[in-house]
Amino acid sequence: MSKARSPSLKIQAIPLQASADFAKEEGADSISAAIMPVLPMVSTPAFKPAQGLKCCITLNLAFFFDGTGNNVDADVGTFEHSNVARLFRAHHKDDMATGVYRFYIPGLGTYFKDIGDNGGGTLGLAFGGGGRKRLNWAKDQFKTVVGHTQEEITEIRVSLFGFSRGAALARAFALILDKLCPDGLYKLPNGKDAPLTIYFMGLFDTVASVGLPAGSGVATALAASDATSAKWAAYEKSLVSRRDNHSNGLAKLAFGEPGADPSPTWADGHMEWASDLRIPRSGLVAHCVHMVAAHEQRHSFPSDSVRVGQHYPGNCIEMVYPGMHSDVGGGYRPGEEGKSLEQKEILGQIPLLAMYQLAMEKGVPLMSMEELKVIRVDKDFDVSPDFLKAYSNYQAKISNSTLGRTVLSHMYYYFLWRFFRIKNSRAAQLKTNEDQEVKFKKNHEELGKKVGDLEEKYKQANKKARKASGAVQNQRNMQTRAGGEVDPQLLQDEAQAKDELEIAKDNWLKEKAKLDSLPSIGKTGVSLPMYDRLLVQETEQIIKLAQPGKKLRPHYQGLLKAWKDAQDGKGLDEKKDAELIGFFDSYMHDSLAGFATDLTLPSDPRCIYVGGDDEAMYAGLISTIQASAA
């Protein structure tokens, strides 16, 4: 990458048809585009604030809602900060003179001092708790800036970014702003109206999962980092049981009517603030970009497309990028699962760069690469030339059509690689993963000790503060009867003790947030071989279940085609397909193996919502299969 240029990408727009997948497509619109980064090519101009009269100002407010478990302060030191965090760091800092402001909202389940969220709890991580407080905080920041601006506000321009549940929060916040200005006008404190526009929304793989997520109906508990062999055996047994279940097992999912749903329960993760995630009207939202993870499968991470039924809103563009949830939104640490040993080889860098360019083109006040270099943030956007070449070679194989068909194209090559790797061993990856986990374990131990020490200091500070408050209260009780006043020294001691307590608590929770974000140890080495075994078993079971004339859903047809190609010598060749194999080997994570918590099967399709609780029918019927053809 040229040091003299911004990390802009030449963009190739390929239609991502907006029709319903595997349904009648006559009359369907095709207004969306799959945008594929190819090479760093052109420089994007740096942001220049509008020059107006000194008495007038245009406000530019950017809100960055990070993903579940993602927190820039905790993650940046180990280079596992998300794409939302990287874009936040690239945004110009607050400047009253130019009216530019940025606001960062830590991910659900992480430490957020301003709203009293200590982070690390199940409520936020598993059920999306704390979302409403984050939305209220963002609304308060918006109102505070607008209310304290001295100049006459001629326009309010808002940009929103989000990843995972943070993307869901960004969408919910857009609807809050929509309600605040139903006619596109925001009522200022002085009684005047100012036009408000959400001129850009940049979303990475929206996942709501608020309340009971889609996977909750089939969830199971597993102690991830310290699970015994007996627990793993029990977990595998529960997966086999789900595979053979009459309501959501393979016999039900692989065959039947359109709409395979691996978690057929009433739970959909659209509770409370996530009950409405539609993108507001184009009069308010000018441009919305949504990037979907092609290879994510977990029940607990269903995606909410910006598509509504068969059509995309005119202000929305949706793209499908290779990788798992955090391969698109960022958040993997270099070396996690033995993949992407350097930051510049992380798969999420590609959608990050594309979003950076698209946001810059729409006027978001992001710094140029030259400006980022000065503050040493340019490394956030580094991409290895070898990695970029491997990515481009992979994308050249993918067919882009409707959302569902594009996902299926990605999944076919993924299954093809899985069967190749199962046949030819994962030893190299497992060894690399083991080597990386040695480093991670050391980090765990060092940080764990530090967190323990800080927690003890917090406890001591808490005792001191309680003692000081007790002394004040005791004297206040005595002086109330005697008609006197509390000793000023006691009040001063109490105030100082409370300040020390607040500092001790903040120091402890900041370091604890870092500990909470570290990769798990010992899970991948066990879960990967387990899921490989299950994938083979599930494929063989589908073949046995297949009968002449029996309809097979397209997701499973792709799975069987990959299996058959591998068995017939038409699969991946170690020499001929070295680049494709290397792409998956080196850069593609396995979120299912890293999660290993719910009852998602390695053969399951992902649930994609296309408006409310309606699911995309991309796993609908496509053809028939003869038993002999399997």
TrEMBL record:
Region feature Disordered, mapped onto this chain: 463-483
Classification via InterPro entries: AB_hydrolase_fold, Tle1-like_cat
Pfam families hit by this protein: T6SS_Tle1-like_cat
Domain T6SS Phospholipase effector Tle1-like catalytic: from-to ranges: 61-179, 194-356
Segments of skewed composition (Polar residues): 471-480
UniProt protein name: T6SS Phospholipase effector Tle1-like catalytic domain-containing protein
Organism (species): Iodobacter ciconiae
